Amino acid sequence: MPLVNMKPLLRDAMDNGYAVAAFNLVDYNTTKAMVKAAEELNAPVICQTSAKTIAYFSHKEIVRWVRTVAEDSPVPVVLHLDHCKDIPMIEECAKSGWTSIMIDASELPFEENLEMSKRVRDIAEKYGVGMEAELGQIMGVEDDMVVAEEDSVLTDPEDAKKFCDALDLSAFACAVGTAHGFYKGEPKVDFDRIEAINQLTRTPMALHGGTGLSDDTFARAIARGAAKVNISTNLKHVFVESFVNYHNENPADFEPLRLIDAQYQACKLLFSSFIAKFGGENRAQPFLEALKQAA
Ligand SMILES: [Zn+2]
């Protein structure tokens, strides 16, 4: 089916107590693996791209991959732009076929962040796509940008309300104690903050830094309004390790298709496990029926 807008999908997730898994695609093969994993579980999925990946492959190439696999599939697929600070690049995505875009102006003071996010809201409205914006500073490394633990700022629920009321977001990214990359110790996720923010904003929350969180943490965050969970670091590791391990176990095999198939299967397994963990299984058809009725 054609790519879907992220907004109604995440509303459905929030209203029904599940979260949609969002994976940062690496190439065509990982894109295909995430959509196939979703299809096998009858689940929606978000294929997201870092600005870095777009700079490497081009908008045109990525949108072709994602459309190709989504159009052959009966489950809803969103093509989303992850953390981006570059407004021309954001507009280019909306124009080229992305169905959701993210502005991350979270390092700016509140008013400037809101101002820049409003400019992106106008772009999202113009092209009819979903939108994510961020308030507060999530610690860790994302696209080569580093936020140290002492510089991370948890999102204030009252500010979150002001921000979300002004923007009509599909997804709200905020700092609630999770981090990008691998966790060194036990992450201190602030569940009360998630709940307070969700009560005030009634906006589906995007939980960043999903890699390394426990099943219990996911369940508690999702029960409190996390409707999109991002997984990136974990995929990077499986992507590399599955390839290397296959070669180490089969040093005489130089058939590239067997190598990339081993990688494809390992990535698909990772995607399936997160989709199921977040409660996405069998959510595709009920969402599509509700969407049809609303139209
Ligand atoms: Zn993130």
Helices and strands in order, then pairings?
Elements: H1 6-16, E1 20-24, H2 28-40, E2 45-49, H3 51-57, H4 59-71, E3 77-81, H5 87-96, E4 100-103, H6 110-127, E5 130-135, E6 139-142, E7 145-147, H7 157-167, E8 171-174, E9 179-180, H8 191-201, E10 205-207, H9 215-223, E11 226-231, H10 233-249, H11 256-277, H12 284-294
Parallel strand pairs: 1-2, 1-11, 2-3, 4-5, 5-8, 6-9, 8-10, 10-11
Antiparallel strand pairs: 6-7
Bound molecules: zinc ion (ZN).
Zinc ion is lined by residues 83, 138, 142, 180, 208, 230.
Give an account of the 3D structure.
Helix content is 52%, strand content 16%. The chain is α/β, with parallel strands linked by helices and 295 residues long. Strands 3-2-1-11-10-8-5-4 form an 8-stranded parallel beta sheet, with helices on both faces. α9 links the parallel β10 (205-207) and β11 (226-231). α2 (28-40) crosses α11 and α10 (233-249) packs antiparallel against α11 (256-277). The protein is globular, with a radius of gyration of 18 Å. The two termini are 16 Å apart. The model has no long low-confidence stretch (mean pLDDT 95). The site of zinc ion (ZN) has 6 residues, from loops.
